[in-house]
């Protein structure tokens, strides 16, 4: 395929190869645990990027679908009985596909509004799902939550299956981003990000493009939620549908550079270890949230477009005629960026 | 001559302001029709209604024999009606080639195919070449000057093989050389059979290029005809100069 570049393949092989072997190099339980959450957020940020980064539609409600995925696995366990061991991982793709299909009508309605309004609509979606989790006692056991059985993995390497499952979905998210960016769908999403009205004016089927991106994005998010639930072994409404999960993922995407392939993951690999360290140092006081906020402000002030695009800009400027006018790098900020800024 | 575009009794109100008031006009196939009128006469609103960006409060728009009630720019584009914007809107973060390729109609089956196929690329470069900006093909549209953006926008709308192009002030804010280039492109494309409806404030250009000329005032048509006749029409003089 012409879209593959040798450098890109090599980069992906090195990064994912190293990540796959990581538990062998650092087998300590707490390190693998940290790695699970890092890769989880890398996956969340990458899957969020598919819609938020490519089309500029900033969803703040992806945690709703994370929670739906978590509950899907929990409910499959307690009500249907998918069996223990590796079987929950096997049903994950089905959960992802089902949530993606379920999200089509939701996305179709939610994506009728623009920019900031869309962000608000998705936040409300998150609270709707949380309330459902609290109140659908028969399915979710309400605020008592669902307890999942611990699988009989070998204690010495207990975390590894979860880690590799997270890594697989993260890889899938990256693959989706990469493939979409190189396709017509990616081009359509980019026209939406730059100027949606103009895109409609040149015949771009913006609704189809947005809804597909939304569905794939939340389907992947749900799969990650499912693995998380199995790993944590308890699903409570306030943890499974947690605004901080989305905010964390969005923050990471902004830090690394939303709309790029590697940016969101990079943001996760920087921020999750920092966050875990701060949470450990500052205890359960949730003071680390202040740290989150400061990072966000710092990004907005210093690197409004994120790490990777800023590096790319600097490189492009050096390559270009030094006397040439600095015509706005990759163009005017999108509506969404203006709203957030 | 048959009417390619038929506007029938269109009205559009914004709150208490009636921007377009029972306006009817026709654009015949093969013409370069001008739409002129003093500021606030409803030209842009009418453009927005015709191109599906605004829903009309009353009246109907027929294009190529079909009636378009629900405002839907994408559908109109696919049936051959397209427009440019006064502010020259382009996809700033995309390259020039990508800007053009985005405007080629895609069936849903092609969604996962290559972003820019070899044949798309070739077609896009051909159009860029016609507009004299082929050397910028791989630059991002955000790096272009205003005049170059206007050319790019013009080129972009041609990718859908339109029958009628509405140009909203194609020469406002561009230098005289660019005005001349615009005029040349309109003439060339018109000779190839493309119909134009142009909102323009440069009266010299209108008089040189367009026939017929339609004059709007207070949201309704007050005159139509050959440029020379319109120029001497007392109603038109009245609208422009006031009493």
Topology:
The complex is a heterodimer of chains A (about 350) and B (about 240).
Chain A lengths: L5 H20 L3 H27 L6 H19 L6 H24 L4 H21 L1 H4 L5 E2 L12 H22 L2 H18 L4 H27 L1 E2 L1 H4 L2 H14 L6 H20 L5 H15 L4 H13 L15 H6 L1
Antiparallel strand pairs in A: 1-2
Helix pairs in contact in A: 1-7, 2-7, 2-9, 2-11, 2-12, 3-4, 3-5, 3-9, 3-11, 4-9, 7-9, 8-9, 11-12, 11-13
Chain B lengths: L2 E12 L2 E12 L3 E5 L6 H8 L7 E6 L2 E3 L4 H6 L2 E3 L12 H7 L15 H13 L15 H13 L5 E5 L7 H16 L3 E5 L3 H7 L3 E5 L2 E6 L1 H6 L1 H8 L2
Helix pairs in contact in B: 3-4, 3-5
Provide a concise account of the structure shown:
Chain A is mostly helical and 341 residues long. Chain A has helices at residues 6-25, 29-55, 62-80, 87-110, 115-135, 137-140, 160-181, 184-201, 206-232, 237-240, 243-256, 263-282, 288-302, 307-319, 335-340; strands at residues 146-147, 234-235.
Task: Explain what this protein looks like in three dimensions.
The complex is a heterodimer of chains A (341) and B (243). Chain A has 15 helices and two strands. Chain A is mainly alpha-helical. Chain A has a single domain, classed as ABC transporter involved in vitamin B12 uptake, BtuC (Orthogonal Bundle), CATH 1.10.3470. In chain A, strands 1-2 form a two-stranded antiparallel ribbon. In chain A, α2 packs parallel to α7, α3 packs parallel to α5 and α4 packs antiparallel against α9. The N and C termini of chain B lie far apart (37 Å). The longest helix of chain B is centred in the last third of the chain and has 16 residues. The chains are: A mainly alpha (341), B alpha/beta (243).
């Amino acid at each position: 395929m012409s879209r593959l570049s040798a450098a890109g393949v090599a980069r992906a092989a090195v990064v994912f190869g190293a990540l796959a072997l990581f538990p062998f190099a650092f087998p300590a339980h707490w390190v693998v645990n940290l790695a699970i959450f890092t890769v989880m957020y890398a996956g969340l940020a990458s899957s969020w990027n598919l819609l938020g980064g490519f089309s500029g539609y900033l969803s703040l409600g992806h945690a709703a679908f994370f929670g739906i995925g978590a509950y899907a696995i929990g409910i499959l366990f307690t009500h249907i009985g998918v069996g223990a061991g590796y079987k929950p991982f096997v049903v994950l793709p089905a959960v992802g596909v089902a949530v993606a299909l379920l999200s089509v009508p939701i996305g179709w309605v939610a994506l009728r509004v623009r920019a900031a309004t869309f962000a608000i609509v998705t936040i409300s979606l998150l609270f709707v799902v949380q309330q459902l989790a609290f109140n659908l006692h028969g399915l979710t056991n309400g605020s008592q939550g669902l307890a999942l059985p611990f699988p009989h993995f070998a204690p010495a390497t207990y975390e590894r299956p979860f880690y590799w499952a997270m890594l697989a979905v993260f890889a899938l998210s990256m693959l989706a981003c990469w493939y979409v960016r190189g396709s017509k769908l990616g081009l359509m999403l980019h026209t939406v990000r730059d100027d949606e009205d103009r895109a409609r004016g040149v015949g771009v089927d913006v609704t189809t493009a947005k809804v597909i991106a939304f569905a794939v994005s939340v389907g992947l998010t749900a799969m990650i939620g499912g693995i998380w639930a199995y790993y944590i072994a308890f699903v409570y409404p306030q943890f499974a549908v947690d605004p901080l999960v989305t905010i964390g993922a969005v923050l990471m995407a902004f830090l690394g550079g939303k709309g790029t392939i590697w940016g969101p993951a990079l943001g996760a690999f920087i921020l999750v270890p920092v966050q875990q360290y701060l949470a450990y140092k500052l205890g359960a006081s949730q003071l680390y949230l202040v740290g989150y906020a400061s990072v966000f402000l710092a990004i907005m002030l210093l690197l409004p477009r994120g790490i990777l695009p800023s590096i790319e800009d600097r490189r492009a400027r050096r390559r270009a005629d030094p006397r040439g006018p600095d015509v706005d790098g990759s163009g005017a900020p999108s509506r969404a960026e203006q709203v957030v800024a | 001559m048959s009417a390619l575009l038929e506007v029938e009794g269109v009205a559009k109100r914004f709150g208490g302001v009636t921007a377009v008031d029972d306006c009817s006009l026709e654009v015949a196939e093969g013409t370069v029709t001008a739409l002129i009128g003093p500021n606030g006469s409803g030209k842009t609103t009418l453009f927005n209604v015709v191109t599906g960006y605004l829903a009309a409060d009353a009246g109907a728009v027929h294009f190529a024999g079909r009636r378009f009630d629900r405002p839907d720019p994408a559908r109109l584009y696919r049936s051959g009606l397209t427009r440019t914007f006064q502010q020259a809107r382009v996809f700033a973060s995309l390259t020039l080639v990508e800007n053009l390729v985005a405007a080629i109609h895609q069936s849903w089956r092609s969604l996962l195919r290559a972003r820019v196929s070899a044949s798309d690329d070739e077609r896009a470069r051909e159009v860029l070449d016609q507009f004299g900006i082929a050397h910028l093909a791989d630059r991002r549209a955000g790096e272009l000057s205003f005049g170059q953006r206007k050319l790019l926008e013009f080129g972009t709308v041609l990718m859908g093989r339109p029958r009628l192009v509405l140009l909203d002030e194609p020469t406002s804010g561009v230098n005289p050389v660019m005005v001349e280039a615009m005029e040349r492109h309109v003439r060339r494309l018109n000779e190839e059979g493309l119909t134009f409806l142009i909102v323009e404030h440069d009266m010299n250009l209108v008089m040189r290029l367009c026939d017929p000329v339609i004059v709007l005032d207070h949201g309704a048509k007050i005159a139509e005809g050959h440029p020379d006749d319109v120029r001497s029409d007392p109603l038109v003089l009245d609208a422009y100069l006031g009493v």
